[in-house]
Amino acid sequence: MCAMSTARLQRSLTRCSAKLSVQLVGRVVIRFVYIFPRFGVGLTLMMNRRDFLKWSLAGGTVLAGARSWAQSQPAERRLKLFNTHTGEQLAATFWANGQYQEGELVAIDRLLRDHRSGDVFTIDRRLYDILYALQQRLDARGTYEVISGYRSPATNKMLRRHGNGVARNSLHTHGQAIDVRLTGVALADLRHAALGLRAGGVGNYPGSNFIHLDTGRVRAW
Ligand SMILES: [Zn+2]
């Protein structure tokens, strides 16, 4: 895994929220939560009311800035997906309330199963973050049409035998790759945005009207 690509993706997806609440016990609780694609880190600061007043006089402007910035960030990450082989589609909010939503992720994993063998695999969550980051970059509201998601080793071997040009150790067999197009967005624009994200591999297949995206090294073909 390329550390640099992960760092870039994290920067692109880092969210901050600041919550302020005055509790009945007389304590003021300020909670900053920074959320990264794969984990959440939270910090809760407690102080008494008098200390808080002193602190807020000095730092209130900073807090106000953090709050307005947090309010401008999307609170959810949502994807619309359509499997071109099975005809299944779903709209899933896979990240909300500061964390990944397991039930939604399982539903997406299922939609991206190997449609030949029926095998379901836990897809690398960063792949979903990449898809989300792309639609944000493009200000797109369309549906990702999925040509290929997870591919079992047996299916991959069979496709290789039939000369479909798939790699021996394809990242599709590790749940780290997807072949897609996005409705309402030209394939060239989707590819350009993916290259700009520098979050992993980007393969161009204009003849078949899709691009390949993966969470491997940053590279393009
Ligand atoms: Zn692919």
Please give a quick description of this structure.
With 221 residues, the chain is α+β, with helices and mostly antiparallel strands. It has helices spanning 3-13, 49-72, 102-111, 125-137, 153-161, 187-197, and strands spanning 15-22, 27-35, 40-48, 76-83, 89-96, 99-100, 144-148, 177-182, 201-205, 210-214, 219-220.
Secondary structure blueprint with pairings:
Blueprint: H1 3-13, E1 15-22, E2 27-35, E3 40-48, H2 49-72, E4 76-83, E5 89-96, E6 99-100, H3 102-111, H4 125-137, E7 144-148, H5 153-161, E8 177-182, H6 187-197, E9 201-205, E10 210-214, E11 219-220
Parallel strand pairs: 4-7, 9-11
Antiparallel strand pairs: 1-2, 2-3, 4-5, 5-6, 7-8, 8-10, 9-10
Helix pairs in contact: 4-6
Residues 148, 172, 177, 179, 203, 212 line the site of zinc ion.
